[in-house]
């Protein structure tokens, strides 16, 4: 078989030309060549093209696996291990798609440490379509946050900013808060402190009425917290928490006014409030109005602060020691740091007495809530 007969099929494959388009001239022709009807290609040129393709195919790199791709991007062995542990399916993900997403994150300034945090709180993040309306989204968010640095911080705190529905979720929610008088600066603060603000925000007439009844003005530092906490809470939950405090003799207006001054009250569970109110009213014998004036009583830990200090106050009274922890002093003592509390009410006594009081106080603090050790908790993602 001659050289031409060997090369002809490959030439046809390269140039996508059927054999019927070729006319083979006789070997006696001074211009030994293949001539198509519509264009001209020499056998030598086609052989060179064929050789180039063979060389390229021989040096073509094998496709990288996701682990190597992440390492080349900047992750170390520990980072890759943590990412795959949180999202095992990434081991089999398409490397081209993964590479395009890593390029986007690089342009945003996301580091390997940031990526580990992001995947930990949003395991499906790298499986999401973060390129949808990317330029428009980033332009809007950078303008909203005021700088790329603040935007980067917000994305690390809540990577879903790159995946939320831009026109039907992000922009409408921001408009809601702005319409209620929350300034952009305050809204940025709230977005950074409460990453799930955008997907959880809902406002209706009943919630707006609750906000109005708190009596908080738009100029108050508490206003942004009051509005955001009512907005992200389910209306059923708000009703239940208000009704729970009403059981102890408080009026709805008093409760809402309390929330206006201490909005984090809405973050406390009904069980926690019940246990604290029962102890304050039943054991310490304080009135519910004291809680209205001193909401910190509902925040402090019952087992490690309130109970031990009240029991120590009773011990000091039984021993006839001074100073005693009674009345307004009791409330002041509850707010002290542990070191200051011991210095004020224990270290001031003789050594033998102080030693006895410290031992009593430590024993009181070591008593745990019933079945506390059997509680199971699993913290994955953001604790919101």
Summarize the structure.
Pfam families: mTERF. The protein is mainly alpha-helical.
Q: How many beta-strand runs?
A: 2
The major pleated sheet works out as: 2 strands, antiparallel
The unreliable regions are 13-41, 54-62, 378-384
Relative helix content: 55-70%
Keywords: Transcription, Transcription regulation, Transcription termination, Transit peptide
Pfam family, one: mTERF
GO biological process, one term: DNA-templated transcription termination
Family: Belongs to the mTERF family.
Describe it for me?
Residues 13-41, 54-62 and 378-384 have low confidence and may be disordered. Among the domains are: 3-59, no CATH class; 66-131, no CATH class; 300-369. The protein contains 21 helices and two strands. It is mainly alpha-helical. It holds the Pfam family mTERF. Belongs to the mTERF family.
List the helices and strands and how they pair.
Layout: H1 3-15, E1 22-24, E2 34-36, H2 43-59, H3 66-73, H4 77-86, H5 95-108, H6 112-121, H7 134-145, H8 148-157, H9 166-179, H10 184-193, H11 197-200, H12 205-213, H13 223-232, H14 235-246, H15 252-261, H16 270-282, H17 288-293, H18 302-318, H19 328-335, H20 338-345, H21 351-366
Antiparallel strand pairs: 1-2
């Amino acid at each position: 078989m001659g050289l031409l007969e060997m090369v002809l099929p490959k030439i046809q494959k390269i140039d996508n030309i059927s054999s019927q388009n070729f006319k083979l001239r006789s070997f006696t022709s001074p211009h030994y060549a293949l001539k198509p009807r519509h264009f001209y290609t020499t056998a030598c040129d086609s052989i060179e093209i064929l050789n180039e393709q063979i060389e390229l195919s021989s040096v073509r790199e094998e496709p990288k696996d996701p682990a190597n791709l992440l390492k080349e991007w900047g992750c170390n062995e520990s980072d890759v291990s943590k990412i795959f542990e949180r999202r095992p399916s990434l081991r089999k993900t398409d490397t081209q798609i993964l590479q395009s997403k890593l390029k986007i994150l690089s342009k945003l300034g996301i580091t390997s440490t940031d990526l580990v945090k992001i995947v930990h709180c949003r395991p499906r993040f790298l499986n999401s379509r973060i390129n949808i309306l990317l330029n428009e989204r980033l332009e809007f968010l950078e303008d909203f946050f005021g700088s790329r640095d603040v935007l980067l911080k917000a994305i690390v705190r809540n990577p879903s900013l790159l995946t939320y529905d831009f026109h039907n979720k992000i922009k409408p929610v921001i408009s809601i808060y702005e319409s209620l008088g929350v300034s952009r600066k305050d809204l940025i603060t709230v977005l950074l402190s409460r990453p799930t603000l955008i997907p959880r925000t809902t406002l209706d007439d009943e919630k707006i009425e609750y906000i109005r009844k708190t009596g908080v003005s738009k100029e108050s530092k508490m206003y942004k917290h009051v509005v955001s906490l009512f907005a992200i809470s389910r209306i059923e939950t708000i009703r239940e928490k208000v009704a729970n405090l009403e059981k102890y003799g408080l009026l709805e207006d008093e409760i809402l006014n309390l929330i206006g001054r201490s909005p984090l009250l809405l973050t406390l569970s009904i069980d926690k409030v019940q246990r604290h109110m029962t102890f304050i009213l039943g054991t310490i014998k304080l009135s519910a109005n004291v809680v209205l004036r001193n909401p910190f009583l509902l925040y402090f830990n019952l087992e490690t602060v309130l109970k031990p200090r009240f029991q120590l106050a009773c011990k000091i009274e039984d021993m006839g020691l001074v100073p005693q922890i009674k009345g307004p002093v009791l409330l002041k003592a509850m707010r002290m740091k542990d070191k200051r509390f011991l210095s004020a009410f224990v270290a001031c006594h003789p050594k033998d007495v102080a030693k006895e009081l410290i031992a009593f106080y430590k024993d009181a603090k070591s008593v745990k809530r019933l079945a506390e050790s059997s509680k199971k908790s699993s913290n994955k993602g953001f604790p919101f």
